[in-house]
Structure formats: C-alpha cells, structure tokens
Automatic annotation (TrEMBL), chains A, B:
UniProt-listed SMART domains: AAA
One Pfam family here: ABC_tran
Highest taxon of source: Bacteria
Alphabetical keyword list: ATP-binding, Nucleotide-binding
Name this polypeptide is given: ABC transporter domain-containing protein
InterPro entries noted in UniProt: AAA+_ATPase (IPR003593), ABC_transporter-like_ATP-bd (IPR003439), ABC_transporter-like_CS (IPR017871), Molybdenum_import_ModC (IPR050334), P-loop_NTPase (IPR027417)
Automatic annotation (TrEMBL), chains C, D:
Annotated protein name in UniProt: Molybdenum transport system permease
Residue span(s) of domain ABC transmembrane type-1: 15-218
Cited PANTHER family: MOLYBDENUM TRANSPORT SYSTEM PERMEASE PROTEIN MODB (PTHR30183)
Family statement drawn from the similarity comment of this UniProt entry: Belongs to the binding-protein-dependent transport system permease family. CysTW subfamily.
GO molecular function: molybdate ion transmembrane transporter activity
Pfam family, one: BPD_transp_1
Listed SUPFAM superfamilies: MetI-like
Compartmental location: Cell inner membrane; Cell membrane
Record membrane topology: Multi-pass membrane protein
Cellular component terms (Gene Ontology): plasma membrane
Lineage: Bacteria, Pseudomonadati, Pseudomonadota, Alphaproteobacteria, Hyphomicrobiales
Species per Swiss-Prot/TrEMBL record: Terrihabitans soli
InterPro entries xref list: MetI-like, MetI-like_sf, ModB_ABC
Function: Part of the binding-protein-dependent transport system for molybdenum; probably responsible for the translocation of the substrate across the membrane.
Segments crossing the lipid bilayer: 20-41, 53-74, 94-112, 133-154, 202-224
Amino acid sequence: MIEIDLSHRLDAFRLDVKFSSTAQVTALSGPSGAGKTTILNAIAGLIRPERGRISVSGRVLTDIASGRVVPRHKRRIGYVFQDARLFPHMSVLSNLTYGRRRAGASTPVEPVVELLGLGDLLKRKPRNLSGGEAQRVAIGRALLADPALLLLDEPLSSIDEARRAEILPFLKKLPESAGVPILYVSHSTDEIAKLAGAVIHIEAGKVVTK
Amino acid sequence: MIEIDLSHRLDAFRLDVKFSSTAQVTALSGPSGAGKTTILNAIAGLIRPERGRISVSGRVLTDIASGRVVPRHKRRIGYVFQDARLFPHMSVLSNLTYGRRRAGASTPVEPVVELLGLGDLLKRKPRNLSGGEAQRVAIGRALLADPALLLLDEPLSSIDEARRAEILPFLKKLPESAGVPILYVSHSTDEIAKLAGAVIHIEAGKVVTK
Amino acid sequence: MFDWFRLEPAEVAALQLSLKVAATATLFSLPLGIAVAYLLARGRFWGRSLLNALVHLPLVLPPVVTGYLLLLSFGKRGPVGAFLYDWFGFSFSFRWTGAALAAGVMAFPLMVRAIRLSIEAVDRRLEDAAGTLGANPLVVFFTVTLPLSVPGILAGSVLAFAKAIGEFGATITFVSNIPGETQTLPSAIYTFTQVPGGDAGALRLVLIAIAVSVVALLVSEYFARKVDRRLDLQ
Amino acid sequence: MFDWFRLEPAEVAALQLSLKVAATATLFSLPLGIAVAYLLARGRFWGRSLLNALVHLPLVLPPVVTGYLLLLSFGKRGPVGAFLYDWFGFSFSFRWTGAALAAGVMAFPLMVRAIRLSIEAVDRRLEDAAGTLGANPLVVFFTVTLPLSVPGILAGSVLAFAKAIGEFGATITFVSNIPGETQTLPSAIYTFTQVPGGDAGALRLVLIAIAVSVVALLVSEYFARKVDRRLDLQ
Amino acid sequence: QDVTVFAAASLKNALDDAAGQWTAETGKKAVISYAASSALAKQITEGAPADIFISADLAWMDHVEKAGLVADGTRKSLLGNSIVLIAPKDSKVSVKLVPGVDLAAALGADGKLAMADVAAVPAGKYGKAALEKLGAWAGVEGKVAQAENVRAALALVSRGEAPLGIVYKTDAAADSSVKIVDTFPKDSHPEIVYPVAQIKTSKSPDAAAFLNYLRSPKAVAAFEKQGFTLLD
Ligand SMILES: Nc1ncnc2c1ncn2[C@@H]1O[C@H](COP(=O)(O)OP(=O)(O)OP(=O)(O)O)[C@@H](O)[C@H]1O
Ligand SMILES: Nc1ncnc2c1ncn2[C@@H]1O[C@H](COP(=O)(O)OP(=O)(O)OP(=O)(O)O)[C@@H](O)[C@H]1O
Ligand code: MOO
Ligand SMILES: [Mg+2]
Ligand SMILES: [Mg+2]
C-alpha cells in the first residue's frame, strides 16, 4: 500500500498529486517532464516537499504537517535512478554490494548477478561500462540493498529485449517472493501491461484519470 | 552509403565488424555490450580503431592503412550520445545552437524546437532538465549542427510514446529532405521496423546474419 | 581611537602599491598559469615532470633565494633584465613592476595547482561531444574546458592575490624597499618590526592587510557563488 | 667535483630535520584541513566567511608576523602554550615540533583550497544515491565524498609539503635557528645568504632542496596517476 | 631629484627622524629603503639606484667597496653601538660580564641564550666574539637560539621564551619588558660600526649634502636619542 499526497514547486514547475495504490507493482506513466522523477525523489527523501504526506505499507516516511521526515538513509528504498549514478571509484562488485553492506543484509549476490548477466563485469569500473551494462548494475545495486520499496525510473530503457524478457518476470515475482512493492516509471505500454497492477498517469504535475 | 570495416580491442572486448549499407536509415541492433556504441565512436572519430576503414557517402573518414584519419571536428557527424552530454554551463538554447554556430549553418532553429517541444526550456540550464527533456535537447543539438551523417544511440529511450510518434516520422523523412543518412541504435523492434531500411545485428563484437 | 587608524601618506602609498602589485601580478600570471596548468593536466610530453618541479620551485625555496635569483636574472645586469632593457627599454629593476614580478612568481605555484585541479576534473566526454559538433581543439578549450574550469581559475586567482598581498621576502630582496615605488605593505610591516617601538605601527598595518584580504575574499566568494549558479554546479 | 656535494654533518641534520618537519606538518594538518575544507565547501553557517579569512591569513601576512603571532600564542607565556605546558607538559618552544607547527600553519591555506576545490566538484547526485542505499551522512562522507576528493587531497598535500620544506620566516621567528633541533634547510640557506661570499654554500643547499622537492613531486605524481586510474577519471 | 638611501633596517627610527629634519631645513627629500644590509649590498652590486649606503656592519660595506662601487673618499664610520646581555623584566638573574663568566649556569638546565644569527647577523657575530673573548662561548654554544635578526632575538627574551639574550643596547633600551643585565666591555668585541658611503654611480647632486647632514647637530641628536654613538 502506497499513499502519496504531495505539493512541490521547482521554479515554474508545480507538482500537485494525490494517489494511493494497493497493487504490488504500480506504474507511473506520463509524458516527459510530467513530474514522475520528482515524485520518486520525494518518496526517496531526496527532496522535501512543500506540503504533503507519504506512507508506504503503513509506515509514514514524510508528513510535513506533523514535521515527521524520515532521513533518506533510514527509508529502506531501493532507487534505480534514471541516470545510473554508479560510484565511479568502486568496482562493479563494490557498487552492487554497497547498500547490502549498509543494511547488513544477507541477500545472496549470486542470483542477482546471474539474472542481470553481470558475471564478467564484477571487477570492472563503471566508467567504461556500456549503457545497458551500467543500467543493469544499478538495478542489481538497488535489489541487493534489501529494500522495503523499489523505485524504478525507466530501468530497462537501454536493455535489449532478450534480457528484458528475463528481468520483467523476476520483477513481477518480487513483491510476492520478497514482499517488496514496486513503483515503476516507464514509457512502454507493453512493459506496463505485463507488469503493473495499477497505472497512475501524470501530466504536467497532476494525476490524470484516463 | 556507409562502409565500415573495423577491428578494435578494449581490454577484454574485441570488436571485429565489416558491413555496408545503402539504406537511408540503417539500424544497429544487438544485446547490451555487443559493441554498438563502440562502432559509433569509431565513426565519429572519438576512438581510433586499430585497423580498418570507414567511409560515408564516398568520403573516407578513417583509413588506418593509408594513415588517413579525419579529425572529429571535420567529420560533420551529428552524434546523439547514449548519455545526453549536454554542456552544463550553457543554456538549452546555447546547447542547441553550439554545433550550428561552428558549422556556420543557417538551419532554422524554430522547427526543431517545435518538433522536440523545447519552447519552454530554452533559457534553462541542462542540470535540472528531466531525463526526456535532456534527451530531446541532445537530439536537437545534433540535428542543428548541419551534419552529413546522424548517429543516434538509443535516442528515444526516455521519450514518451506521443512525442515518439512525432519524432519518428521526422527522422524517417530526414535522409530524403536533407540528404542526411542515419545510423540508428535501438533495442525496440518496433522502432526499427518503422524506421530502418536495413538492420545490422551485432553480437559480442561481430556482425551476425539473422 | 580612530586617529590611530589614520594612515600616514607613506602607508597609504604602501597600501595602494600593494593592491596595484597584487592585481597586476594576478592578472598577468593568469594566462600563463592557465596554459601551464593545461599542459600539466593534459600534456604527455617529455619534461613534464621538470616543468612541474620548476613551477613548484618558488614554494620550496626560501623567498630570499627566489628574490636573489630574480635579482641575478632580471636585474639590470642580469641576462634577461639586460635583454629586456636593451631591446624594449623595459626594466623591472627597483620598480613596482619588479615587485609585481616577484609576487607573481611566488604566487604562481598556487595558481597553477588550483587551475590544474579543475581542468583535470572536467569531463572529457563533454569535450568529445563538442568535437563532434565541429569545434576544433582550440574552440573546445575556450568553449568547454575553460568555462568548466572557472572554479579553479577563481580559486587560483584568490590564492595568488592573497599571496601577492603578503609576499615580502622575494620582493624586498629583488627590488628593495623604496617608499612609493617598491615598498609594499609587508615590506612596511617588516621595517616596523625591525626597530624599537615599531610594534604599534606594525600592528596597524597588519590590521589593514587583514582588512584588505577579508574584502578580497568576500568579493571572490561572491563571484564564486555567481559562477556556481551560472554553471549550475549545485 | 663530487666533493662539492658532500654534505657536512650539520647540513645532513638540516636536511633530515626539514623532511621530518615537512612530513609532520603535512600529516597532522591533513585531518583538520579536510574538515575545514568540507565546512567551507558545504557548510552554510554564520561565520563561514570569517573562517575562510582566518584560513587565508598566513598567506596574506608576512611570515615574520605569523611567526610572531605564533610566539605570542604558543610560546611559553602565550595562552595556548602555557595551557599545553601546564596540562600536558608539552611545549613547542625551541623544539622541532614548533617548526612543524609553523610550517603547518603557513601551508594550511594551500592545503585547504585544493581539498575544498575537489569536494566542491563531487557530484552530489552520487551522495544522494549513497543515502538511498542506507548510508548515513558520515558514511556517505567517508565512502563517497572523501574518496572522490582524493585528487584534491593529494594536490593539497603536495603543496603543503613543498611549502613546509621552503618555510622559513615564520619558523625562525617562532622557534629560532638551533642546529639539530630547529635549523631546517631554508634556515641554513638563509644564514649562508647573509654572509658575504656565502653564495656557494647557499647554492649547494638550494640544489639539495630542489632535489628533495623534485623527488617528492615525482612520488606524488606517481600516486596521483595511480589514483586517477583507480578512480578511472581518465 | 630625491636622494636615495639604502640603509640597514635597524636605523629606521633615527634615520627617518634625521631625514625629516633635513627636508624641513632644505626642502629636499631623502627616499630611504630599509632592509637587511646583505640584501642592500647585493642590490647595489646588481645596479640598484642607490646614492648612499649605510650598512650595519663592515663586511657588507667591504663587499660593495670590492665591487668598486664606493665613491672615492666617501666611506666613513658613522655610528657606534654596544651590545648588552638582557633578561625578562621580572628575572632575578644577575651576571657580571667579566672574563670567565659562567653564563651556562645563569641559563639554568634547559634555558636558551637568544642571539641574532652568529654567523650572519652583525649583532650575533659581535656577541659570539665577545663571549669567546670572555671565555664563555664553549659553555653556552649548545644553548644558543639564533634568530633571524636582533629584533627577533629580543622578542624571544621579552616573551619569556629565553631567560637571557644578547642584543644591541639601542634595542634593549626601548623595550620595557626586558632589562639590561650587563653591558659587554668595549674591548671584548670588535668595534661596532655602521659605515656609510656614497655610491659611485650616484648622480644625485644632493647626495654629498645629505651625507654631511648626517653629522649635523640635529641628526646627531636623533641618533643619540636611539642610543647610537657618533663615531668620527
Ligand atoms: N531543479 C529544478 N528546477 C527547475 N525545474 C525543474 C527542476 N527539476 C525538475 N524540473 C522540471 O520539473 C519537471 C518535472 O521533472 P521530472 O524530472 O519529474 O519529469 P519526469 O516526469 O521524470 O520526465 P522524464 O520522463 O522526461 O524523465 C520538468 O519540466 C523539469 O524540467
Ligand atoms: N574503455 C573500455 N575498456 C574496457 N572495456 C570497454 C571499454 N569501453 C567499452 N568496453 C566494453 O566493450 C563492450 C562494448 O561496449 P559498447 O558500449 O560498444 O556496447 P553497446 O553495444 O553500446 O551496449 P549497450 O546497448 O549496453 O549500450 C562492453 O562489454 C563494454 O563493457
Ligand atoms: O639589516 Mo640588519 O641591521 O643587519 O638586521
Ligand atoms: Mg524522469
Ligand atoms: Mg551503447
């Protein structure tokens, strides 16, 4: 259960959304610049909204009215950014296990490496990974951080269809197998149809009922 | 007419491709890490291949055997990078016209801004553009540089379907209307089907005939 | 109370001279500083380590030695000094220009390091992008590398200016301590410290030097913030 | 010919002392330098400009003045000096530790600027990412900000070390010039320059100082390249 | 055209005073550059535009003279000074500077004797010579803290860093936080002399006049006020 009620302004852009979803995978769709990434940033605690309330599975993460704002590192949110944001000074393996080490989690690394086809890259540095390779490492890093919620911002945009066909079912299973709900930003109606139990459509900072 | 014959090594990765295409739009497909971006980098003159020859519309850009390597700034190649690579210190408008000013081109800016829906962003700095907005600026910047060849590396990955439906036909027309052939990297079979006259499939650094 | 701060004409002259010397030193060494920083950051030539060592030399040597070396080479009878005088009628000897030269030389390593650090931090992929857009290497440098290095250029200039305001050992050794021509603030302070009862005078000038540099720093921070905003670095 | 380079015991002692002083000064000021650089780069607190000005002070003031101020505060009868002595039995007076303190203070602005420049260049989005992965601000600092600032930390240390090797004015004023205890290379050089006909002796020591710093620079460049490769910055 | 004087820094107070009187009387101006005698002498041999040089010791004047830059017959011994043993004002130490004096005992276990550089700075050289003559050098050699100049040595004593120091009388007299323990006997060290000369390349028509003025009653008063003695 995700409950979002937010108002925030970024210069000329105004975000004003209120929605909730009990789906295991909730898709966030909408044109470029609609405010999807801004919503994820607010949920992850990277921006403090001007007004509003965010709760995930009953846990209040942000409640501006009561002054409760959980710091980002205590939110247990696995965020796959639109840009990969890998740590350039660490190997792929260190990147993958960064969140895992913080969480003291014991999630086995091997299956994720397998799923994402990262076996040959573990010792490499992020700088010279290909676009799709970097994106896969970013997904693995978020998965291994033992999150209570996954935020995926167009996670498969640079990933080829064969690999995508492996990852999608895995993501679909995740809420049930590991109890991790997913909020998923995508432009692909195909992906959304395959994955999402609910679709929230955003346009120009507002929720639009289609 | 694009003629490519290349060998290059990046640590453990070996690229060895030879293909040519007379199509107006040639698609480059293949799994993540296959070598697509590396091929584009060689064509743009960003890497000097160990061996090989590249010619576009009869103009030899690289010929290692004869030592002829046209410097990158004289290649007249409009390259939309997989990562947008906008200039952070310039406004969106300055980014858009950067190549245009170098080329002394007189291509009108207005239609491109219109097509890509950038009208409201011209005075903004790239840093806080949304993912799709940045990608559109990168496309515009390459289009306006008066290129003799367009290299597009997953240019529409973060762009919503409505906008995509406007851009694709424009790109399809470009070779005819402006005489600019296109080399197009994409994972979307749908995009490729709509756009490309020829498909080159790469796997693990080699051309694969499907 | 305030009388105490009223400066004597010689002290006003020293203050003005210090500002002129520091500004001249900073401005004139900036182009060379940028060039050397670029070479050290990007060049892969023989003698790069040598150039690097040479640039650092004024830091490693006692200022008096640097001043003496300047006197030997740029003095009226020094090889460079004689050449400049014979061909251009230009002389550093015991002129404020010599003080600026000394300050510039002493500040040079600080300036170069800061600029070099910023150049090394510039994302080369942006330079590649500029190249494909038709910019030749020189244009790439001036439209991409240099603007993105502005934080280092500013920091380097601030360091250089501050150092130039404070420079003393090399200056007094090279161009002496002539009121109105080569007597900068630090030389004047030094003179005060050399005589009985000079402490009050020295303290007054020290406070002035501090005030000048606080103002200079505030101005520079203001510009730095403006640049940050222009570059949208934060 | 080679005899000319054979060092006298006092000169060997001066060289060793200089290395010890410079290394101590650099190492001990590094943690504080990083902390201050971080505060200046990221802090938004009242008094930030004041802190900034204070850090730059040793650059702006003639070294002799800085040395005198050190004497006033860290000397036997200075407030800090008396406190340290009474409570810890620790004294800087006429000891090599005092020379290290003087060198550290003089080098501090150079170190801070370089580190600050690197911290300011760190991409905050990476720090955000680390935060979402469960790293608290301190962990973010040590696992992301600090490693990505290593170029500046290295550059700052090199500048500080070089400056500490060359420092002289503040050192001799604070702890004077006691062979074997506080007579560093520059003090020894200075003494030579004050004696008619001492140029040959000074030149020899100058060459040694140059050799030391060339070696130090080469070592630092080697590490910098290694770091670059580890950070995959190029 | 002004007269340019290169003078040892320790003369600043007195010479500024004398030059001011000269200006008041003649309307002419002396521009004075104060620095270490060593720096000034080297600058003069490298072509500095000095008309007059006043050194704090003989060696650097000799240096200029050897370079052939002293105008014939103009070199004179201008001023004399004496060196004294000083201690912080509240010190109870009492020492008589007689042959065989045990300075080491007066310094205590780890006290330092503050002096100007004994190899380079005139006051340090005179002090060392005097201690040698009194047979006290060997006893204190390892306890000497050498400062860059006399003023820095003075500061070490007045700040209580060092229990004893050797400085010029002129410096000691003006610092209220030190007291003079004893004055070194005149014959214990070479005569302390500030030599003066006109520089050969000087073209100033007033240089000779200024040189003469330095021996006028008003100038002499200015020097004596600071504790210097006029030599002839
Ligand atoms: N710091 C900022 N200052 C000003 N405007 C901003 C800032 N950050 C984002 N914006 C604007 O807010 C709007 C919403 O941005 P957001 O990144 O949430 O879009 P998005 O829905 O994720 O788009 P995309 O699909 O292109 O990634 C955009 O128009 C963007 O330009
Ligand atoms: N500088 C480098 N050093 C080592 N390996 C490299 C370097 N650059 C690229 N590679 C490797 O070369 C292979 C090809 O990379 P390339 O970027 O061309 O892939 P791609 O086909 O564009 O993949 P994607 O669709 O994921 O962008 C990848 O496995 C990549 O990790
Ligand atoms: O210039 Mo001095 O009087 O030798 O210290
Ligand atoms: Mg987005
Ligand atoms: Mg690619």
